[in-house]
Amino acid sequence: MQALEQVQEGQLQGVEDICALSTVSEPALLHAVRLRFARQDIYTRVARILISVNPFCPLPIYRSECLDRFKQAKDSAELAPHIFGTGHDALRGLAQGTKDQAIVISGESGAGKTESAKFLLTYVAECVKGHDADGAHGAHVEERVVQTNPVLESFGNAMTTRNANSSRFGKWLDLRFSQALAMRGCRITSYLLELTRVCGQCEGERGFHIFFQLTQARDEPGLKALNLQAPEAYRYLKNSVLRAPGIDDKQNFSDLRRALHVLGFSEEEQMQAFQILAGILSLGNCEFGEAEDGEELGLVGAEAAARALRVAPERLAQGLRRRKVVTGRDCIETPLRLDQARAARDGLGRVLYGLFDWLIQRMNDGLEMTNGQKPGVLDISGFESFGTNSLEQLLINLSNEELQQQFNEAVFKSEIEDCLKEGIDLGEIRYEDNSDVVALLDGKGGVLDILDEELAMPKATDLSFTNKVLKSQGKHRRLVTPKFYGSATFGIHHYAATVTYTCDGFLEKNADRLPLDTVADLLLSSELPLLQEMGRRLEGGSPLAKGSKLRSATFRFRASLRELMTKIQASETHYVRCIKPNASSVPEESSRRPWCTSSCATAGCWRRYGSGSRASAAGCASRISCCDSAACRCCGPRRRGPPWRPRRRRRRTRRRWRNG
Ligand SMILES: Nc1ncnc2c1ncn2[C@@H]1O[C@H](COP(=O)(O)OP(=O)(O)OP(=O)(O)O)[C@@H](O)[C@H]1O
User: What is the 3-state secondary structure (H, E, C) of 470-481?
Assistant: First the structure.
């Protein structure tokens, strides 16, 4: 018989630091965190780890009075657990030691990672304001670092079914400080921007915010020359959700303009960037007509795209309809099929969105300082498991596995070893060691090595890749083989969940080919200096350039992941674990009754109402609060219980009571 855990007083009261409990167990931790969350104490401390539960509503805990309290505190432990406390600890670590500091923020999509990173940045910037600003960038560097956020959010965030403002890239922010703790600059590294979103999105989602901001602001005097239309007029936007709940595109666009200005982007640079975005939208509207065998496809709409991109229309049209085939010493041009031409058009759209990398490069050029101590903040995409999971999910999940491994080593392994050295018996401490998953994916002869090997095989297909994985790793305890032979799928038992990956398109994505052979020449021929610069990068040092050793997408990703892990391992690491309390992204879900199942009828509103209720659309005024409709079982007058609770069960319950 299993002994029941003893309930402790601290757990019932919701202690601030879980380590204060005499025995720490999973139920005790869960109970304490839940209790604290119910009274809006969203943060709980577990030694160096901060647990943060997303409240999905504004709380008065980030005001300047609160910030000042942390700023003046000697030790963050004097105060209640808070994200500012983590910032305080990192700054104290910097001031005391020689080690760099790293703050790793993890959690699923919508758990609050980006908001936490922003609070941290605000705190750090406020704390170091006024310290000697001996750097070349003067006293305003903190403000400029903070202003990188609106730029990254406009270009790198989008609405998904899980989060209206979801970061579609991972971010490592390296902050640089002088000895006197004056902020000297920063360097941003981005990981795995979800470029496929430029040309298409899943149902209930939309593309990057910037496209909607720009089309909303099209009537502003400076933007009229772009000849932009409403989002409905563009193929890349019209099938998505046009308005993201809680997101004010117009306001965000003016914030973006201000941020670009503070970061030193000239008016001309900004206009060129907007022009490229307009070019991407026009490119998406290009449509191809049918063609006879061996003939070129018809093409409509290339003039508008060419005008926006400032390239010759014939050159663009030719690039989208023909490709070069090299046979021996000869090079002949052949017309593309309809599907190939469409793929080339969308591929070019994605290459043009390389604008994101240019923006980051440009911000880094303005803010980077090579010397100084570095605290880094990592906000990386959380573990992902969708209906269909592809190479992007595999790479994101690999990065989460690596971070989990680093967390295990830093928190469990090293602590246990230290205690054993000191002769302290910790009893049995169980944790899931995930090093075998990391080895299966990233190790020698692992899944990603096999994928790279397939690039060199002329007849390789997604299925041949899958078969090789199943053959060489089939007995690995973390690999799940598909039920039916011949399907290009496999599963992985990750530390967080088991995920099935569909390998269709793995080879193509890994090869990361340029959509047209002439793309670098096309960009170089543009009258826009910014496009010429992007063309030069493609032609020369870019990983996408011909002959580059770094041509495989997974090779590059693994190299950058290794670099990142080395940085984290060399630093003193602070962890923030963000938790999403409910899948509907609403406050206090726990107080809602479980039988609320119908969605609201208002377009763009994801709120759910009581089944069968006639909640009016007018109730949906705010994203955060509930609908307040009297007819809605969520917010209407409370009833004693679900009306359809089966009678028999009630009778049985009564009988049991009587007997008992
Ligand atoms: N501390 C907080 N206080 C109030 N609201 C919050 C807080 N943290 C997050 N939120 C709300 O939750 C939403 C989602 O948070 P956020 O965008 O930070 O999630 P994320 O973990 O970065 O998601 P993704 O991985 O999709 O980018 C925010 O837009 C905000 O409305």
Answer: HHHHCCCCCEEC
Mutate to test the pocket of ligand 1, among 36, 114, 377, 393 (most ligand atoms within 8 A of CB): 114
| Top mutation candidate among 37, 42, 54 for ligand 1, by most atoms within 8 Å of CB | 54
Q: Which helix (H) or strand (E) element contains residue 50?
A: strand 49-53
Ligand 1 mean position, distance from CA 178 (Å)? 31
At position 508, the amino acid (one-letter code) is: E
Question: What pLDDT digit, counting tens, does each position of 161-198 carry?
Answer: 889 999 999 888 888 888 888 888 899 999 889 898 99
- Cα 401 → chain centroid: 16
Complex ipTM tops 0.90: yes
Place of tokens 């008992």: 660
The alpha carbon of 591 and the centre of ligand 1 are apart by a number of angstroms equal to 20
CB 584 within 8 A of CB 590: no
Q: Which of 238, 170, 247 is nearest to 201 (CA)?
A: 238
DSSP one-letter code for 452? H
Q: Tell me the β-bridge partners of 502.
A: 489
110 in a labelled binding site = yes
Told to judge if 417 belongs to the known catalytic residues of this protein, a careful annotator would answer no
Q: Tell me how far apart the alpha carbons of residues 465 and 609 are, in angstroms, rounded to a whole number.
A: 46
Distances from the Cα of 441 to the Cα of 117, 187, 408, 433, angstroms: 29, 29, 18, 15
Q: Please identify every stretch of the chain with a pLDDT value under 70, giving residue numbers as ranges.
A: 1-2, 98, 131-139, 294, 326, 369-376, 414, 426-429, 540-551, 588-660
Bridge partners of 158, per DSSP, are 166, 208
**Calpha distance 389→616 (Å, rounded):** 36
111 marked ligand binding residue: yes
Task: Give the pTM.
Answer: 0.82
Ligand 1 center from residue 598 Cα (angstroms):
24
Atom nearest to 118 CA in ligand 1? 18
Identify which of 262, 253, 318 has the alpha carbon closest to the alpha carbon of residue 140. 262
